[in-house]
Amino acid sequence: MNFTPKFEVKSPENAQKGYEPVTNYMARDLITFKPDDEIGTVIAVLNEKQISGAPVLNDRKELVGIISEQDCLKVVIDSVYHNQPVSKHFVKDYMHTDLITISENADVVDVANMFLKHRFRRFPVVKDGKLLGQVSKRDILRAALKIKFTTW
Predict the structure, then answer these.
(1) pTM to 2 decimals?
(2) How far apart are CA 145 and CA 140, in angstroms?
């Protein structure tokens, strides 16, 4: 007897693999910053919202960087060393610009592999340079609970 399991396909791009697209699990309502924002503002928002970083968008809403707690710590050290207030520093001077992004067509298994390959907490999901959302390790673990495995 031959049995082929039926996969539930959520989008045509992932039809061959049968895994859900990452867009089904990503966070869409994100806190973002602009390159000209002051680091003091970033530190306040990261603390208030209890997040460890956020995307940086230009005026055209294109992803141009990521600013993290680690980046803000560099500012604190620079401020102490140069005896300047944190408010004299800007996001554009400390954000990471060498980004690894996820296509909106990526599936959850591809992204899980990317998390194993790179030591990031989250990846931005983009389409044509525009930020659609971000996906975290926890989002992928939530998706993993729905993956159907075969026993053969």
Answers:
(1) 0.80
(2) 9
